[in-house]
# Entry
Amino acid sequence: MELPLPLLWLSVLLPVLLAALGSLSQGILRFSVILSALLFLLPGLLGLYYVGYLDAQQLRDPFTIGLKEYSLGSFSLLLDGLSLPVTLGISLVTALVALYSLKYMEHRIDELRREGKQVPGMGGYFVLYNAFSSSMLGMVLSSNLIQFFVFLEISLLTSFALIAYYGYGDRMRIALMYFVWTHVGGALFLAGTLFYGINAGSFDVLLETGYNRAFLEVGAEGIFALAPLLILLGLLVKMAVFGVHMWLPYAHAEAPTPISALLSPNLIGIAGYAIARFGLSLFPSFMKGAADFLFLLALLTIVYGAFVALKQNDFKRFLAYSSISQMGYLLLGISTLTAFGLAGAMLHYLSHAIGKAALFMVAGVFITELRGLRDMNKMGGLARVYPAMAAASLLGFMHLVGMPPTVGMWGELLILLGVVQAFNPLTPWSLLALSIALVLSFLMTAVYSFYAMRKIFFGAPKMGGGEEMDSFKGSVLLIAALGLLLFLLGGLLVPPAQGAVELLLEALR
Amino acid sequence: MYEPLFPWALAWLAPFVAAAIMAFGMLLKVRDERFYGYLSVISILVSALVSSQAALRVFSEKKPLYSGGDFVWVPWLNVTLGTYFDGLSSVMALVVSWVSLLIAIYSTKYMEGDWGYGRYFTFFTFFVGSMMLLVLADNLVLMFIGWEGTGLASYALIGHWYTDEEEKWVGRPGRYALGFPMFFEPSHSGLRAILFTRVGDIALLVGMAVLFLTAGTFNIVELAQEVPSWMGELSAKGILSLTLAIFSLGMLAKSAQFPFHEWLVTAMTGPTPVSALIHAATMVKAGIYLFLRFVPIVMAGALAIGAAGELYPYFLFMAAIGAITAFALATMALVSDELKLILAYSTASQIGYMFLGAASVGLLVGSLGPKLIAEGVVAGMSHLASHAVFKAALFLVAGWLIHAAHSRFMDQMGGFAGLMKLTAIAFWLAGLSLIGLPPLSGFFSKELVIHTALSASPIIGGLAILTAAFTAAYTVRAILRTMHLPPQAGKREGHEAPATMLAPYLVLALASLALGLGWPYLARVYSDMALLTLSLNASYIPEVALSGTAAAVVGLVLLAAAVVFAHYYLRPAATSALLGSLKPVYDFLYDRWYINSLLYALFKNNGWRLASFFVTVDEGIDYTYHSGMPFTGGWLANLLRSLHKGATNYYMALYAASIVALILLMVILAG
# Structure
């Protein structure tokens, strides 16, 4: 169905303008930040409001940019059951992190200026921040490959600038590293997209009637057959799976913390969403062939990321490795090519977005309030000083582990169902091997999560002081608590995923 | 056919709502202890009353009460918010809610002045809600939510005193076994608890996934009705026993069966009422409860498709684990010198009894029939109920004794009998029930288990009997040392517990006597309730009081008790000398058969090794991309740059050489 107003485009385009206006004067900045946070929330809330339609239908923005004369198809924004959990994750995280940024970035910009660095002030930060957030929403709501790529580029450039300006450590070098890596991924994706689109005669993925099946009918020969491989490789680099993950720990650990909270759960996960959305609808037989490889890659990524995370001492770097591991779960769900697995992966995106954002935000609270404290060995007993942050962290970790009463449980359950289904018919040996692999990989998240909980929050307190609740820490607690609400809404979130993934999987049959 | 959602869902919902309110209270920094205490007690009372009302209905109408089975929460997976009271779940719900209520009342006094009072009651109440949900859920997903909730509460409460002061530890500070510390801080114990049980939880989820994908439903009632079809399918694939074993791993981990018992032992760092409730009376029973839930379903299915023989390995596995746990943990309890630790060993050991009792029936392949199945379930269920009552009493008594002695070690305790008579009476009553002496409830339920086990296998039955003797020995030893012998260190002091603490354990101890005296009636209730349980369609009225085996077991138990009495009470000096000469055996038992050290050596050490290896790999990848490749690129650039010297003659020569090379290449390719 079509929305009565172009609300989706509004929430993608308006925040940047608002931030630009806000940068004019300190007085209206706060107002413009709050207004754009509400705009970020809009797509997610729209999705929940129209959730009944999303099962098998799209929610379309009435405004479309027709580019047929340039053979690019048309750019429109739409929401369906597959993108609902992802959109909701981005909406919630970008909105709350915007509020969180107010105090954090003021502190960070002060700090940088005291070091004598020339950096743009709060206005400039929010222009970049809003462009970055909007571009992520744009990617998820895109109906067209080129449109997706344009938003992808915007997100990469803005996040590059944010790291370069406001990051920590050797931030120029790390920003450059980030830039190069993400553009390797971007270039691969673009090459694949061009091969695909020129061959198929259109870059549209989703038409008003449903998925564009043009390519399936045309087929591909010669160099055009490389399209799916290039797209997949590009997205895997973006997703930071094992082997091409090395840029992530640097970028996500050294980015300014609000940006880490967007990069780590949201941006990289979009690559997983894109593999599901584009890979399965455009290249079903290719995905079938790649499924076993992706399954093993997913398991390796989960276990590898988790074990390396265990050995990290820097809180943010620890969280960054955890994100690599979590991308493994997303890929695991997708690699099953089952409705359960795919729906589980999308719900895990949502749960990881909330959980990891909360955890990064907690890390940021310590950085601002405890003189840049990031070394986990120097923490310990912090629950006595920061009980609400301890609660938010516990909730955050529970999202990653998939423990009820957080929304993570639905993702975990569905991914597991998908994996077992993918191995049907089971034999004694396959069941045994599968069980061992699943216990190991799903246990590892719990191991590093609760190990870190103990290291950071428990034990004899090493400092005194008390926790002053303000909107800064309130936003952390709020986002962690939202996962509880979404758990109860499992009945709303799970069924649209079912309808949407079954439409997606049609091409496989 | 379904009752409405309310009021029955209140049995689990009321504590959840209270816990949520308390969490908000903490956020708003409400400091008044009464806010938390009252809210907790009242919500649990609501739960207990609703459960009692439901149980009465079930018992009087002679049919299960099923509410909210049509209230769909997640349509795709058909997860409903159903509350299902049948015979088994009614008995369990009654035990859980009423014992929780008594312990909540005890806690209001015990935790007085604690810096984490609000947090304690929030998690305590959340636990009760989760446990009731686990028991009453009509489908596996809802059950799993309760299951994980109890695990979370257990984690939080074990680590309640997370600042890790030494008096909150468990184990002798400074003691090592095979190089691994045998003392545990609360935060360490919490971590162990959640990770050990998590292993089983994931296996349980995998098992659930297989069941769902085979049977097409998570609903337990439907699973019971359609058991021949899904069991037939699993059997055809040859994965019936394996699937059940994987599914059951969750039960074994939750119920602290060998080798998962390690988490329960160190869970004693939690406040004592928590040990009584979660780690004795309720949560650790979740595993055996789920087992009792599925044993009749699975056995009925096996009879229907003629696959009883195929399940033999599964039931042998379960019975063997139960028997090993019962025996091993009883031997550890013999030498322990921490009162709560003895009770923890005893808990795992007694749950081992329940597993072996219920699983033994599955070994009688030839004669398996409805009646026999009922016998197994009644044995497990009745021991579960009587254990919950007397073990909760024992823990609550221990809590007061530890408070009185200002130490968790028995060395510091002694001669309390003269100082607190009512506590001593409660200790003896509950202790004798644990030992299994008539006419206490423990006697009847334990005899049922032993009877079933003996008829299934002499080895398993023999282990059960031997365990009974050991149980008598460690119980009498603990009571004598704390109550009647003088303390080995420190001085004898203390007074009777305040009423809010005394009343709960006295009530529980008297209840274990009353349940024993009322056994003839109770046996009928259990039997009727069994008949109202899913897939159980035969009645079995247990009669044990007069059997020869029972007399022999009681004789053996008395003998063991007498030996301990003679050694500890009459000749304490000679006994310490004797124990000194048995040091290797003593160490082996005291260090828990070295199981903890072996697990740590195998998993923790190797895990860290693997982590270090992966970190090395990571450094290699980092170097390759971020140093190796730029370096190679720079080197190549220099190489190419060196060709560009700026000398025209040199360029001309190179140009000519290239032309020649090209022509040669073309000739070769053309030819």
Remarks:
- The mean pLDDT of chain A is 93.
- Strands of chain A lie at 59-66, 74-79, 206-207, 210-211.
- Residues 83-114 of chain A form the longest helix (32 residues).
